[in-house]
């Protein structure tokens, strides 16, 4: 590896600490790449993220000091709105596919000579692959960028949707559905990451609300569309429509969405041997990498809160045809599909308010802290809805349906209100994933999505047997208790999240510093023949990233 002769070597404490605090699977690689990679990028003020050079901060005692950053002004407001719209449309596709077949379950079962429970098992499998997908695509997007991964997964989703429409037997139907789930979830994950790339923390909640409208409207409008289609046509037409929508998404991504990532990690490997590159890439795209973030208790609790929301969504939507049809004597899939419009309209209304509410909460607490932003403050906006509104709606729905009281209006109203409530919770939790570890937003979000979609899989799989065993009322009571427990967990993250992060960072630094410092020092001496000074005033990786982003922004203003 030849050092960059066009840059002057300036080793410092922050540079050495980045060697010491690199992630578990990238310890050796980050130590090896410091001499060339850091110097190559240290003069580019627009670079941000865990691999960018970060000058020493002015706010040593305040790692969360809010400052502007020109990196968020690269694109015009109109271009940002277009990106949000296209990403939201693509995020609609995979969740819509996960539920559109619900209205046609009996028809699909009849085609393949099986039972509705088996077809619902395919929906559970769909959710499993939605959960696995983010831990693969998240790290890859950090390495190769958002755009190539988005385009590749969009094309594959299009082809797999076409294959599902043509599936000749049940096995092919299962395989193509699962594979399309694996590709489609990338839209949700990378759409969120794109918003973190182009919007400031105080703007992300509003943008996230608009983006999530697609991801959340999909599960509720999917059965409605499926009900219309299966009433007048074959269930296969559901997947022909999905294929057409996927093709539209491919075109939108190709022509309207540019690369948004601030820094591709693949650029750090220039000048490496083929063996070193291979070793580095394996570490960078390791799917276990995002899951290691669960050593942070705040991440665990926020993931549990997100999981409660997804559990509630799919455990409510999955059994509607089986639960409400016999109680209200609904005879066609179209009439059943109308019930799905209630939460869908709630999601749509929540789009206009939920994200703005989260951003407003952040600004209020910044003012209370005299200009200091703490990521956990955003979570405050979700607590009243997770702890009060959502449990109340779930209990009302469960027991009125169980006891057959209130008629059709009561479940429609509470389904609408819980849809609104979810859009007041999701933007807060999703945006927190982008805020809490700058430069690792895709990996944090991937870990969160991994847990939440496995919860959705569990809800989809157990809801029908549970309702048959204990009834709708008691099942929804359990769901309400899950929500209350999750709200308590979110409050704990608000109260102790910052302390937990600092404690975990300190343990990481203590465990990794001796070995990594030795590796990095030996390599730098061998390659540069320059003595590397011992680090001073060491900072953890999270602090370096956060400080550096703020200081870089301050320099450019």
Automatic annotation (TrEMBL):
PROSITE patterns: MFS. Its main location: membrane. Residues 511-522 have a biased composition (Polar residues). The chain crosses the membrane at residues 82-105, 117-137, 149-168, 174-195, 207-232, 238-257, 296-317, 337-358, 379-400, 406-429, 450-467, 473-494. It comes from the Eukaryota. It is found in: Membrane. It is a multi-pass membrane protein. Residues 1-67, 504-557 are annotated as: Disordered. Residues 83-497 form the Major facilitator superfamily (MFS) profile domain. InterPro entries: MFS, MFS_dom, MFS_trans_sf. Gene3D superfamilies: MFS general substrate transporter like domains (1.20.1250.20). GO terms for cellular component: plasma membrane. Keywords: Membrane, Transmembrane, Transmembrane helix. Residues 1-21, 56-67, 544-557 have a biased composition (Basic and acidic residues). One of its GO terms (molecular function) is transmembrane transporter activity. This is Transporter AQR1. It comes from Tolypocladium paradoxum.
């Amino acid at each position: 590896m030849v050092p960059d002769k066009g840059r002057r070597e300036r080793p410092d404490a922050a540079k050495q600490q980045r060697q010491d605090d690199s992630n578990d699977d990238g310890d050796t690689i980050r130590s090896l790449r410091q001499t060339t990679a850091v110097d190559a990028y240290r003069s580019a003020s627009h670079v941000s993220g865990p691999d960018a050079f970060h000058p020493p901060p002015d706010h040593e005692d305040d790692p969360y000091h809010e400052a502007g950053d020109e990196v968020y002004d690269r694109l015009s407001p109109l271009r940002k709105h277009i990106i949000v719209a296209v990403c939201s449309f693509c995020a609609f596709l995979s969740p819509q596919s996960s539920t559109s077949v619900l209205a046609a379950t009996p028809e699909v079962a009849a085609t393949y000579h099986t039972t509705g429970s088996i077809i619902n098992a395919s929906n559970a499998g769909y959710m499993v692959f939605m959960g696995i997908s983010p831990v693969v695509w998240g790290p890859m997007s950090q390495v190769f960028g958002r755009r190539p991964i988005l385009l590749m997964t969009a094309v594959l989703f299009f082809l797999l949707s076409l294959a599902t429409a043509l599936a000749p037997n049940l096995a092919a139907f299962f395989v193509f559905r699962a594979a399309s789930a694996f590709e489609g979830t990338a839209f949700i994950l990378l759409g969120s990451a794109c918003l973190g790339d182009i919007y400031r923390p105080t703007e992300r909640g509003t943008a996230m609300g608009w983006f999530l409208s697609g991801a959340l409207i999909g599960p509720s409008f999917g059965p409605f569309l499926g009900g219309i289609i299966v009433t007048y046509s074959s269930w296969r037409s559901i997947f022909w429509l999905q294929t057409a929508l996927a093709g539209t998404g491919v075109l939108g991504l190709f022509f309207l969405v540019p690369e948004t990532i601030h820094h591709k990690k693949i650029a750090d490997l220039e000048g490496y041997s083929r063996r070193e590159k291979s070793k580095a890439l394996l570490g960078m795209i390791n799917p276990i990498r995002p899951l290691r973030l669960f050593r942070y208790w705040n991440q665990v609790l926020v993931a549990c809160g997100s999981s409660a929301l997804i559990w509630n969504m799919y455990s409510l939507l999955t059994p509607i045809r089986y639960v409400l049809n016999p109680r209200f004597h609904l005879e066609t899939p179209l009439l059943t599909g109308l019930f799905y419009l209630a939460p869908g309209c709630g999601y749509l209304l929540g789009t206009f308010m939920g994200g703005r509410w989260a951003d407003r909460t952040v600004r209020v607490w910044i003012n209370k802290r005299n200009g200091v932003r703490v990521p956990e403050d955003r979570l405050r906006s979700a607590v009243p809805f997770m702890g009060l509104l959502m449990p109340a709606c779930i209990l009302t729905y469960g027991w009125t349906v169980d006891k057959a009281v209130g008629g059709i209006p009561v479940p429609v109203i509470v389904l609408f209100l819980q849809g609104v409530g979810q859009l007041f919770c999701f933007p807060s939790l999703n945006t927190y994933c982008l805020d809490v570890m700058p430069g690792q937003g895709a990996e944090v979000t991937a870990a969160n999505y991994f847990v939440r979609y496995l919860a959705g899989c569990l809800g989809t799989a157990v809801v029908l047997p549970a309702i048959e065993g204990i009834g709708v009322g008691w099942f929804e009571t359990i769901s309400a208790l899950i929500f209350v427990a999750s709200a308590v967990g979110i409050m704990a993250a608000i109260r102790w999240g910052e302390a937990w992060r600092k404690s975990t960072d300190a343990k990481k630094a203590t465990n990794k510093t001796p070995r990594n410092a030795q590796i990095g020092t030996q390599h730098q001496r061998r390659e540069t023949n320059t003595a590397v000074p011992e680090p001073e005033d060491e900072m953890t990786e999270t602090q370096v990233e956060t400080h550096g982003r703020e200081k870089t922004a301050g320099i450019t203003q």
